[in-house]
Amino acid sequence: MILAQLSTSPDPSFWREALETLTLRAGYNTTVVVLGTTLLGVAAGLVGSFLLLRKRSLVADALSHATLPGVALAYLIADALNLGGAGAKSLPVLLIGAAITGVLAVLTVQLIVRHTRLREDAAIGLTLSVYFGVGVVLLRAAPDYASTPASGLHHFIYGQTAGLLITDVYLMGAIATIAILAAALLFKELALTCFNDDFARATGWPVSILDIALMALVVLVVVAGLQAVGLILVVALLIIPPAAARFWTERLARMVLASALIGGVSGYAGSTLSSLLPRQPTGAIIVLVAGALFIISMLAAPSRGVIPTLIRRARLRARFATDHLVEFLFDTASPASLSEVARDRAWSSLQSRIIATGARTAGLVTGPPSALTLTDAGRARGHRVARNHALWSQYLVTYADLAPSHVDFSVDQVEHILSEDLIAELEQALARRGIKSTSAQSSSGGDA
Amino acid sequence: MTFLTTPNPRTHSPLSERPEHSAEAPLSVHAMTVAYHRKPVLWDVDLDLPPQSLVAIVGPNGAGKSTLIKACLNLIPIAAGRVEFWGDTFEHNRSRVGYVPQRESVDWDFPVSALDVVAMGRYRRIGWFKPVTRKHKHAALRCLEEVGMGEYANRQISQLSGGQQQRVFLARALAQEAELYFMDEPFAGVDAATERAIVAILRRMREQGRTVVCVHHDIQTVPEYFDHAVLLNMRVVAAGPVAEVFNRENLQRTYGGRLTLLTEATEAVARAERGST
Fold first, then answer.
1. Where in chain A is CATH 1.10.10?
2. Helix and strand tally (H, E) in chain A?
């Protein structure tokens, strides 16, 4: 639908508008909304990192869904107390109501888990749906009981930045800023709690208070995001950025920063897009941007991404296969047919042909598949591989208790890991066992 | 030092003699009972640990070994009794007590380096809100070097072997600079080289005047590694110097008549007797 809308807008002003929004030149109101949502994304990315590492992400889902009855109740109560025409829909009042039922939902989950045999996933699903159901009913009933019209409340479900008041955005930005500062201040404490709560407790950190603080930060983010992102999808901003960030790094500080960045970019680009597509709910667009960033991270991130991991694994396998081919030819010390090697290593014929082609391209073997021969470089490599393998297996025999953690077939030479003395000792042991001395052939291999 | 020597008239169980608690003992447990729901896990435990010693807590599965140290550290509530550290409360002595939890109790895929984990041992010293300064990182690195892991400081912890992970935990405990340590199965699932390294570290700690209490599974190595043993099976069957309490009779009382264990125990006891003569 978005694509359809994008492709059916021939108006060149659309793109000018897009550029202006992205560069924050699209007028004061739009700029404030974009900045506010960016701030919200940063806050959610920060807080969400700790939530993810504490393995509590789904609790936030229960919390956010449970804000709906709070919004509706706050509206009804404010209306009954006659806080004035506009007062009933005053944002702070509605957000306080949202926070209260949100926190109640978290407590409900904890009570269910503590006092029944239900597991947390069931407790979360149950709490989330019941609170949300109550919210839907209250929202439907509200117009019948309230004196002021309740229109606009349903925007809390999917999020809508189009009709936002500038003061509402200021409120959102302020809450997000508080969450950012608090998360930064508590970085070390939250990290310790997430990694090892028993150790934290034993060393005197008040873990339950830190957990409550983390939950309070989640409440702040959810409440701040209610209007722009909506209560159904605000949890995505807490989960997707940290999950994406985790693919890029193995360090907590960097992960938290990356998560804040991804959250911020999602908020920024999402709200920009949304201002151009006023009929689409903002929350969904922000989450789609975050989702796209997640998919890129999952596939392409160098340290943990799927594709780089597959490439690394394929390279290692190719390396071992080549080693095996070269070692076999080195051991037979005469031309051998590819099918012979394939039988010895249990390779399929396709596999063996790929491996042989690789070895040929690397200049290690020559000759037709029926009589593969090692080149000089191939013989040198074969000698090295055979010697490494013989030494490693002797090492495993001699130092069975300590060897397994040191053996590494992927290193080019044993010398990189073991000391010279130890290698000399292993070579003597090999000679005693009458295993073919590979060093005798080293002259023919041309490898000193 | 009266370490489990004076029989007390209040003794109601022939198996456990109530010790006279001493104020210089790093740890005294007085009539401690711990229960999960209504089922007692530890029952009327009395214990005094001498300073500067290596203490093994042994006993069958479910004997309450981990529960004992967790209850001492206030990680689980005590149903009855009390625990004293140097004759005072835990709260007043927290900084003097170190802890090495079970290795499996944490997620090793957590995005931190070995050095980051060790630095956690200094967080209490660093205090609220303050970042980890260079000074504390240096201290953490020294602790990593002490356990022979200096070159792995920047490794992400999931890339370490089980034995290396255990050493990182040990380094974190050293970084706490405590005087009394509780270690939950520090030898579980480590290779022989790490086991020797850990023993060397424990002995060094004892030389520095510290006391280390280990939950230990391998009763064969008790006489070789430890000075004192606590034989536990819901209650304290026996506690004291290995040479005095680590004998066939007490082991049988602790483990029941499990044959395989008893064969191992017999060998271990024989070694202990050889060692003490």
1. 308-445
2. 21, 2
Q: Rounded to an integer, what distance in angstroms lies between the CA atom of residue B168 and that of residue B145?
A: 10
Distance from CA of A367 to the nearest CA of B (A): 42
Q: State the average pLDDT over residues A148-155.
A: 73
CA–CA separation, A421 and A398 (whole Å): 14
Question: Any CB–CB contact under 8 A between A185 and chain B?
Answer: yes
The CATH number of A19-283 is 1.10.3470.10
Q: Which of 1.10.340, 2.60.120, 2.30.29, 1.10.10 would CATH assign to domain A308-445?
A: 1.10.10
pTM equals 0.85
Query: Which residues neighbour A443 within 8 Å (Cβ) at sequence distance 6 or greater?
Result: none
- Sequence spans of domains, chain B: 27-106+180-276
* Residues whose CB is less than 8 angstroms from the CB of residue A275 and which lie 6 or more positions away in sequence, other chains included: A21, A26, A30, A33, A34, A161, A162
Cβ of residue B67 closer than 8 Å to a chain A Cβ = no
CB-nearest to B75 from A187, A201, A250 is A201
Predicted ipTM? 0.88
Strands B27-36 and B80-84: antiparallel
Q: Is B84 within 8 Å of B26 (Cβ atoms)? A: no
Which chain A residue has its CA at the smallest distance from B126's CA? Answer: A188
Residue B16 reports pLDDT greater than 50: no
In chain B, which residues have their Cβ closer than 8 Å to the Cβ of A188? 123, 126, 129-132
**Which of B111, B128, B164 shows the shortest C-beta gap to A250?**
B111
**Under 8 Å between Cβ of A242 and A297:** no
Which of the 8 DSSP states describes residue B143?
H
pLDDT at A414 over 90: no
Q: What is the largest CA-CA distance in chain B?
A: 57
| Nearest C-alpha in A relative to B69 | A202
* A363 secondary structure, DSSP code: T
Q: Tell me the residues of chain A between 47 and 76 that have a Cβ less than 8 Å away from chain B.
A: 53
Contacts of B163 in chain A (CB under 8 A): 405
- Contact call for A191 and B130, based on CB within 8 A: no
B156 touches chain A (CB under 8 A): yes
CA distance A23 to A414: 57
A404 and chain B: CB distance < 8 Å anywhere? yes
Q: Measure CA A438 to chain center.
A: 48
Say if B110 is an interface residue toward chain A (CB within 8 Å). yes
For tokens 């990192």, the residue is A49
Q: Which among A195, A254, A404 has CB closest to B106?
A: A195
Q: Which of A289, A308, A288, A192 is nearest to A247 (CA)?
A: A308
Q: Could you give the residue ranges of the DSSP H alpha helices within A247-281?
A: 252-276
- Chain A nearest CA to B88, separation (Å): 16
User: What is the mean pLDDT of the segment spanning A317-345?
Assistant: 87
Class of domain B27-106+180-276: alpha beta
Q: Which residues of B touch A199 (CB under 8 A)?
A: 99, 101, 120, 172
Lowest mean pLDDT among A13-22, A40-49, A332-341: A13-22
Report yes or no: B173 and B181 within 8 Å, Cβ to Cβ.
yes
